Amino acid sequence: MIRRTLAAAGTGLLVAAAGVAVAELLATAVRPQSAPLVAVGGTVVDGAPTPVKEWAVRTFGTYDKPLLLGGIGLALALLAALTGIAARRRPALGLLGPAVLGLAGVGAALTRPDARPIDALPSLAGAAVAAGLLRRLPLPGLPAAPNTPDAAADPVGVGRAASGGGAAGSARVGGPERCAPGRGGPGAGGSGGSGSAGGTTRRTVVRNATLVAAGTVFAGAGAAVLRRLNVADAARSRESVRLPAPASPARPVPAGVAPGFRTPTGEFYRVDTALTVPRLDVDAWRLRLHGLVARPVEVSFAELLDRGLIERDVTLSCVSNEVGGPYVGTARWLGAPLAPLLRAAGIRAGADQLVARSDEGMTIGTPIETLLDGRDAMLALGMNGAPLPFEHGFPVRMLTPGLYGYAGACKWVTELEVTTFDAFDAYWVRRGWAREAPVKTASRIDRPAPFARLPAGPVTVAGVAWAQHRGIAAVEVSVDGGPWRAAELLPTASTDTWVQWRYAWPAPAGPHTLRVRATDGTGATQPERRRPPFPDGATGHHTITLTVR
């Protein structure tokens, strides 16, 4: 009984793997974002409560996406095993598994923000393959399919024959009185009569399982090959980009800036909802500007390059960043200024929001007043001297100094709609985040590390502080709850970047607590009260403890 149940569960896993492999192959060939696991994963991300999302970002960082896909895969495997067991007991009941999974995949794919009718095809095909295998082929642990020779020869079921019960079952068909001892009858375990049918059934089961496994591997390998070809094509598209010199170069970084002022591209944080990174063809990319404008605009990447690019050092931070967290970085960005494009389109009276839409369906709303107030909002094309990496929005992303990323930094942008806040709530606003999101003044201690053990004597405490578009006027450090002492600010070229700071501390022996706070260019000091990131950014003083020996 246990062996047959395990065989049936294994068969459920096998046919599910075949269905998923076929679905992945079709999705890779048609539209990668229509793959069932990705579509269902995206639906889970969209439907997850904000506290759950924040917990995932805080706990797993950039590993949240593979962990989510892995969890969905485990749930699929469990359902597949249960489907195989159900099919052994009642074949019609076993078809519910593929039907449920197929409908879930179709529903998820067709309700994605960027859905197309063809996105239903991979899930439908995968479900059809799994259901067909369960229904029509004799496989381990399952009854033989109806109207097949093996079903007629083994009405008890393939599971019994495959698990060693074929002889007994055949004896019931032929009856002991029909089998002379020593003449190869089923009672003697010979090869004649029903025993032959039982042997054929076992061979058929093994053959079918092998063919299904081979087909699954073939389909999976095909999907992997197509995926690599797509990645290679996208990489060639990116490598073909030649960024021109900026019409307005960035100011030189002043002497005296410490190493690490700019964040290396490979270390720049990434927080987004894309389970698969879009890889767009730069030649096919278009940006459409429409909505409450007098003259809708559509521009290609080549046309964007000709719009007089600006180059700026800008610090970008994520609203999900906890006090002292890692989701902040500074890069040298190259892009087309956004304000002239908006003015050329002719913004109609009453419009107050620009909604940016990405290729994968994300929507980000930015106040138009902010984009037109003179700051260097741009459609960024380059990062640290190279075309944008795919993970950071290639070929074009939006960038708005002074706003958190969720309110002004749409990646993979393909559409800009001029509208109003009353008419449309962007993705994160619908989930309770603030409509307008200026970056809060923040500071962080980078050295020494928390819980460090240091020798007594002079210690340099150092870190960064940021208040993009307002700038940092002062940074102060407090030791063990004592008075605030001014830290030295290193030079910087712009109010749109973080400021490095350092403080010379004569460290005495014993346990100690260090706190830091910053004051922005308007004279406002960051509040001491700790608040979580939701709904408009974290507040509080970054604090570490350490021991001096």
What does this structure look like?
- It is a single chain.
- By secondary structure, the protein is α+β, with helices and mostly antiparallel strands.
- The protein has helices at 2-30, 36-47, 50-60, 64-89, 91-94, 96-110, 121-136, 149-153, 158-174, 193-239, 301-305, 338-345, 368-371, and strands spanning 286-291, 297-300, 310-317, 328-337, 353-358, 363-367, 378-383, 386-387, 397-399, 413-419, 442-447, 453-454, 457-466, 472-479, 485-486, 488-489, 499-507, 510-520, 542-548.
- The strands form four sheets. Strands 2-1-10-5-6 form a five-stranded mixed β-sheet. Strands 3, 4, 7, 8 and 9 form a five-stranded antiparallel β-sheet that branches. The chain has a five-stranded mixed β-sheet with strand order 12-19-18-14-15, with no helix packed on it.
- Strand 1 (286-291) and strand 2 (297-300) form a beta hairpin.
- Helix 9 packs antiparallel against helix 10.
- It is globular and about 85 Å long.
Rg (CA only): 31 Å
Shape: globular
Strand content: 15-25%
The residue fraction in helices comes out at 25-40%
Gap from first CA to last CA: 66 Å
The total strand number stands at 19
Number of helices: 13
Which class best fits the helix and strand makeup? alpha+beta
Write the layout of secondary structure elements.
Blueprint: H1 2-30, H2 36-47, H3 50-60, H4 64-89, H5 91-94, H6 96-110, H7 121-136, H8 149-153, H9 158-174, H10 193-239, E1 286-291, E2 297-300, H11 301-305, E3 310-317, E4 328-337, H12 338-345, E5 353-358, E6 363-367, H13 368-371, E7 378-383, E8 386-387, E9 397-399, E10 413-419, E11 442-447, E12 453-454, E13 457-466, E14 472-479, E15 485-486, E16 488-489, E17 499-507, E18 510-520, E19 542-548
Parallel strand pairs: 1-10, 12-19
Antiparallel strand pairs: 1-2, 3-4, 4-7, 5-6, 5-10, 7-8, 7-9, 11-13, 13-17, 14-15, 14-18, 16-17, 18-19
Helix pairs in contact: 1-4, 1-7, 1-9, 1-10, 2-4, 2-6, 4-6, 6-7, 9-10
